[in-house]
């Protein structure tokens, strides 16, 4: 019998009603922080990136599409979306969709989440910011012409009938691709491939911008765009670092791999621009940054540092090639007006990351993330270990390719149906007259009002608020009071 005695727990670690024994305070604190970092990528990150990257006349509309999506997704998420993505199977035997249900009940929110030592309330919040940024990325393909009322309908419909299916299939422990062993560490499939394909498909149905805008669409504020890009990059610390749902060595590795791959991708894109166009393009560098972030996302915590470097080289060159070379020779790519090149930066980079994950996935690192050994083996390591591991490696690549086919098919079909149905309610695109005007026509507001240009007339069709006449009326009323 052991005579060892243990010191009592420090008072701050003793479980109580507010901190139950199953909850890890450090994990919960990091998860809330990581979720907020991802939220900052959208609000204000993509808001100001979009607002700065478009023409001046579209700055308000582009930023507001992002802000609206963030708010709308949250209400839909707690109303039914979270449970459809991570709850019980909707139809027994068909493991691709969950039952719609609310995630607002106090008793449910304070229980332990399906993974990790955190409460459901934290998990709902964490998964919400991923769902929200997916819709905002789709908006990037539609800037400069989509009817805002159509966007208001598109957001809840696409979240409900596309995002929840992809998330359940790949991320839910009950999902069929999750059970088959697909590796999607933090959303290369669920978020980036989905948004890239859905954005491209929706752009096809909405149609192109006006000829004038498509011919010349200079950013109105590159420094503002860079600020948004910086928030996007730094926010990715939470994007990939939060997905183990635990403060672990694997989370630390995922964060470092994320930044290493991104820096490599940015520099690769920059060198290609200098080599072929003789100019170090700032906008090109931002594109390279984004493709690096996207490519590493499905692999962040399951690949070694050298693999992150290689993935950065691929993500800085292959999407560059599809955007600068293939795009110019493809009739389909030229026909579809993808404003922010979401297809190249997210669909191509996301698919690339998924395939490279199947090649570079390390068995030991996969064990740290999935807590099972031998089921997640990259093809290169399968050859290295030999024997049955070669078959396991080929199987992993096959599963990664199956996931790409599934997500592409899902989003082409569902996005097309949604756009078709919205057409019966409101037009998908703004009128030619409104597209000529931009923000003033869509919202009755301008991003940068120079003296004398920001006034609104009382009889305008937007019901504008005339500040000067209102002030005059107030002064007159004040004079009447003094006289009385």
UniProtKB/TrEMBL annotation:
Q: Which Pfam families match?
A: Ammonium_transp
Task: Please tell me whether the keyword Membrane is annotated for this protein.
Answer: yes
Primary location class: membrane
The record's listing under PROSITE patterns reads:
AMMONIUM_TRANSP
State a GO cellular component annotated for this protein: plasma membrane
Q: Which keywords fit this entry according to its UniProt record? A: Ammonia transport, Membrane, Transmembrane, Transmembrane helix, Transport
Q: How does it sit in the membrane?
A: Multi-pass membrane protein
Q: Report the subcellular localization.
A: Cell membrane
Q: Which InterPro entries match?
A: Ammonium/urea_transptr (IPR029020), Ammonium_transpt (IPR001905), Ammonium_transpt_CS (IPR018047), NH4_transpt_AmtB-like_dom (IPR024041), RhesusRHD (IPR002229)
Q: Name one GO molecular function term.
A: ammonium channel activity
Gene3D superfamilies with a match to the protein in the record:
Ammonium transporter AmtB like domains
Please give the start and end residues of each transmembrane region: 29-51, 58-80, 124-143, 150-169, 189-207, 219-239, 293-321, 341-360, 367-384, 404-426
Where would I find the Ammonium transporter AmtB-like domain in this sequence? 29-448
Q: Which family does it belong to?
A: Belongs to the ammonia transporter channel (TC 1.A.11.2) family.
This chain belongs to which protein, by name?
Answer: Ammonium transporter
Q: Which organism is it from?
A: Malus domestica (Apple)
């Amino acid at each position: 019998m052991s005579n060892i005695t243990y010191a009592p727990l420090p008072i701050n670690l003793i479980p109580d009603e507010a901190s139950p024994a199953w909850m890890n305070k450090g994990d919960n604190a990091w998860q809330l922080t990581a979720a907020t970092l991802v939220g900052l990528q959208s609000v204000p990150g993509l808001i100001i990136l979009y607002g700065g990257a478009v023409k001046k006349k579209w700055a308000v509309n582009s930023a507001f599409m992002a802000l609206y999506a963030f708010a709308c997704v949250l209400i839909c998420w707690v109303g039914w979306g979270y449970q459809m993505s991570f709850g019980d199977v909707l139809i027994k035997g068909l493991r691709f969709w969950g039952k719609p249900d609310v995630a607002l009940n106090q008793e449910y929110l304070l229980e332990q989440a399906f993974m990790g030592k955190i409460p459901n309330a934290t998990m709902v919040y964490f998964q919400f910011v991923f769902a929200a940024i997916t819709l905002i990325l789709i908006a990037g393909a539609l800037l400069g012409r989509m009817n805002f009322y159509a966007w208001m309908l598109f957001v809840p419909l696409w979240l409900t009938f596309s995002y929840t299916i992809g998330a359940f299939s790949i991320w839910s422990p009950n999902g069929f691709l999750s059970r088959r062993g697909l590796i999607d560490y933090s959303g290369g499939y669920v978020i980036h491939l989905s948004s890239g394909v859905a954005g491209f498909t929706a752009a096809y149905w909405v149609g192109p911008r006006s000829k004038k805008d498509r011919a010349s669409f200079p950013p109105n504020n590159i420094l503002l765009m860079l600020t948004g890009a910086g928030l996007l990059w730094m926010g990715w610390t939470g994007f990939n670092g939060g997905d183990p749902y635990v403060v672990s060595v694997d989370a630390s590795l995922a964060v470092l791999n994320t930044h290493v791959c991104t820096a490599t991708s940015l520099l690769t894109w920059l060198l290609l621009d200098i080599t072929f166009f003789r100019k170090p393009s700032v906008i090109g560098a931002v594109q390279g940054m984004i493709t690096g972030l996207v490519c590493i996302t499905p692999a962040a915590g399951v690949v070694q540092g050298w693999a992150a470097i290689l993935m950065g080289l691929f993500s800085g060159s292959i999407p560059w090639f599809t955007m600068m070379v293939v795009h110019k020779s493809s009739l389909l790519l030229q026909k579809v007006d993808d404003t922010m090149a979401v297809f190249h930066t997210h669909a191509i980079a996301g698919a690339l990351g998924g395939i490279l994950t199947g090649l570079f996935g390390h068995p030991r690192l996969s064990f740290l993330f999935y807590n099972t050994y031998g089921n997640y083996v990259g093809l290169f390591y399968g050859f290295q270990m030999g024997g049955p591991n070669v078959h396991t490696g080929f199987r992993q690549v096959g599963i990664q390719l199956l996931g790409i086919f599934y997500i592409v098919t899902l989003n082409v079909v569902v996005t097309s149906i949604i756009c078709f149905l919205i057409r019966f309610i409101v037009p998908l695109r703004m009128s030619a007259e409104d597209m000529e005007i931009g923000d003033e026509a869509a919202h009755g507001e301008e991003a940068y009002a120079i003296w004398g240009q920001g006034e609104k007339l009382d009889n305008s069709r937007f019901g504008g608020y005339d500040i000067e006449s209102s002030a005059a009326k107030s002064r007159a009323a004040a004079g009447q009071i003094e006289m009385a």
